[in-house]
Write a structure and sequence with these properties.
alpha+beta, Jelly Rolls, about 400 residues, 14-stranded mixed β-sheet, single chain, about 15% helix
Length: about 400
């Protein structure tokens, strides 16, 4: 007769648990680091609760009617998630209780409980799918055969508290033109050049505090049959004010503003770009019109881009007009048109951190008689234009304050 799943598990564990680990916490940690050097322990989102050992302070006594406030169950009970075998192995000193699906599929975490209580709970809740091997103060060293057989894992190692977490991606938006509201701003997954690319892009928010936000975007694009290297594919961005309409309360944006009124538009932006991000830029995008009542149906008359960073040989629209020193940096000015006039200030030296007054740039064009003081700045964006490639833009902090 074929061995039962439980017998196979028992034999696999007996063959795997072969070596004692050191007794002191310091020695255990050294042993663990040596054995796990270069090994990736966790890939799934999971929080692992430490099993109590003599060196851990026990929870307060359990009152009548339930566990004491602050107990492991209260702190962690609602954070239980699926945990694969490869994720669970070699994390200690923890007891992870799992069950097999009847078809022998991936284990699903049932509970995180300590000591004999955990083992008893596991047997009760997972029978007949799981047979739990006795706890042993030995480090599991799984062979290939054991990996295939073991679905319930007891992992004992260094006497330290560990929490493993992955960034929350619940706000990530990957559909074209999906938006995320961030106070007076909103994130925009702008995939505007449809038909010129194959690939995907997602935007996600991290935090918002007052007028300061953090957010990110990841992308992967190639040319379609009709696309060219010079075609901008998307512009993942955050928007303040107008962008073919007003998505958030217009009064909170303090836009539009007349160029000739010389109001300060103070902005700061700190970001990182992934290694080898393809052909792309990181840039502001300002939208201007002849009136202060523009709505979704009104086209812009002027667009001003401010390139802080460019990669892979990316270049702006049009031809070079001249150069200017603004905000402590040198910028080359380009002039072009795509149904409206486009002016691009391209920083000669790439940066990942800038503090600017955007009024300096509009006035730079006014002095050159390229822009009228009677125009209105109605929208301010900040993001990344991607021509092709795979990469990520992460904004640590971004703000715009209009004086």
């Amino acid at each position: 007769m074929a061995d039962s799943t439980g017998d196979s598990l028992d034999r696999a564990l007996e063959g795997a648990l072969t070596r004692r680990i050191p007794q002191s916490a310091q020695a255990q940690m050294k042993y663990l680091v040596k054995q796990l050097k270069g090994m990736r322990l966790l890939e799934s989102r999971a929080s692992v609760v430490p099993r109590r050992t003599p060196s851990h302070r026990a929870d307060p006594a359990e009152p009548a009617g339930g566990r004491a406030p602050g107990s492991h169950r209260e702190r962690w009970g609602d954070r239980m998630e699926e945990l694969s075998l490869d994720d669970a192995r070699l994390l200690g000193p923890y007891v992870l209780l799992a069950r097999l699906t009847p078809a022998g599929g991936e284990p699903r975490l049932l509970a995180r409980r300590s000591g004999e209580e955990g083992l008893a709970e596991g047997r009760k809740r997972s029978a007949p799918f799981l047979r739990t091997a006795p706890m042993q103060h030995r480090r599991p060293r799984f062979s290939k055969k054991a990996k295939a057989l073991v679905s319930g894992t007891v992992a004992l190692a260094a006497a330290v508290d560990v929490t493993v977490a992955q960034a929350d991606e619940s706000s990530k938006k990957c559909t074209a033109f999906d938006t995320i509201t961030l106070g007076k701003y909103y994130g925009n997954n702008n995939l505007w050049n449809e038909g010129k690319y194959t690939g995907t892009q997602c935007v996600g928010s991290n935090s918002q505090s007052g007028s300061t936000i953090s957010w990110g975007a990841d992308y992967s694009f190639a040319n379609s049959a009709t696309g060219k290297d010079c075609d901008v594919k998307p512009y993942a961005s955050t928007v303040l004010g107008w962008r073919w309409g007003w998505k958030v309360d217009k009064s909170s944006t303090r836009l539009p503003i007349r160029v000739g009124d010389r109001k300060k538009v103070n902005t700061s932006w700190e970001f990182t770009v992934s290694a080898n991000p393809g052909v792309m830029n990181v840039a502001y995008d300002l939208w201007l019109r002849n009136k202060n009542t523009a709505d979704w149906q009104d086209q812009p008359t002027d667009e001003i881009m401010i390139w802080l960073n460019r990669q892979g040989g990316a270049g702006p629209l049009g031809t070079k007009y001249g150069s200017v020193s603004l905000g402590g940096a040198m910028w080359d000015i380009y002039q072009g048109a795509i149904g409206w006039k486009v002016y691009s200030f391209v920083c000669r030296t790439n940066t990942t951190k800038a503090t600017l007054d955007l009024d300096d740039f509009t006035q730079g064009l006014v002095r050159r008689k390229l822009l009228s003081n009677d125009k209105y700045v109605s929208g301010i964006e900040a993001g990344t234009e991607v021509f092709k490639g795979t990469g990520r833009l992460d904004t640590k902090s971004y703000s715009v304050d209009i004086g």
